Amino acid sequence: MKRPERVTLAGRFVTLAPLAMGHSEAMFPATADPELWRYLFDGPYADRESFDTHWRRKVASEDPLFFSILDAATGQPLGHASLMRIEPAHRVIEVGNILYSPALRRTRGATEAMYLLASYVFDQLGYRRYEWKCDSRNEPSRSAALRLGFEFEGIFRQHMIVKGGNRDTSWYSMLDREWPSRKQAFESWLDPANFDSAGHQITRLADFR
């Protein structure tokens, strides 16, 4: 089974590209709000030097394998996400380390980024299980997992120590047999016909499933 590679995944609103040092210049000020880092394994960063040190490690990392989320029209970096805990023998992989700048949050591009990664995992790599895990206190992440079509599997108590504290982890998954319906829902939601002239959705993503 193939491992994910440093590929470019092009969408209508965003492009996912291998994380690069050149993206750090825009991302440092765009992610200055400490709240954006609350539930991530790293950050926040008080200065550019420490930010670049950790960014450099992310660029070199194989697992997690990081992708920058770029505005499709301008190439401006808007966030990052990774494929991680990669298990080719079992065809299981997780999406994580999701960091969205304020400019990306709650946009069509934010949803499209998750669609592009899921499509890469299922359609191109042929994995059978796609996982989403988050701190059980992270209600926005838990809501996002369900909205995107992941199924809740339970909470692993005191699963990890993150930033010096206990983390209970909420587990979600999407399976290969579920992907065709999830894919159709994504594509129907992302269709320009699903948005009015002001850019507001007409039908919710969950309602397409």
Can you characterise this structure?
By secondary structure, the chain is an alpha+beta fold. It has a single domain (9-208), classed as Gcn5-related N-acetyltransferase (GNAT) (Aminopeptidase, 3-Layer(aba) Sandwich), CATH 3.40.630. It has five helices and eight strands; from the N terminus they run ββααβββαβαββα. The protein has an eight-stranded mixed β-sheet, sandwiched between helices. α3 packs antiparallel against α5 (179-190). The longest helix has 17 residues, at 108-124. It is globular and about 45 Å long. The model has no long low-confidence stretch (mean pLDDT 97).
User: Which structural class should the secondary elements be placed in?
Assistant: alpha+beta
Strand order of the largest sheet: 1-2-3-4-5-6-8-7
- Biggest sheet, in brief? 8 strands, mixed
How many domains would you count in the coordinates? 1
Percent helix: 25-40%
CATH architecture: 3-Layer(aba) Sandwich
Strand portion: 25-35%
Q: Which CATH class applies here?
A: Alpha Beta
Q: Quaternary arrangement of the chains shown?
A: single chain
Shape assignment: globular
What's this, in brief?
This protein is of the alpha+beta class. It has a single domain, classed as Gcn5-related N-acetyltransferase (GNAT) (Aminopeptidase). Helices cover 28% and strands 31% of the residues.
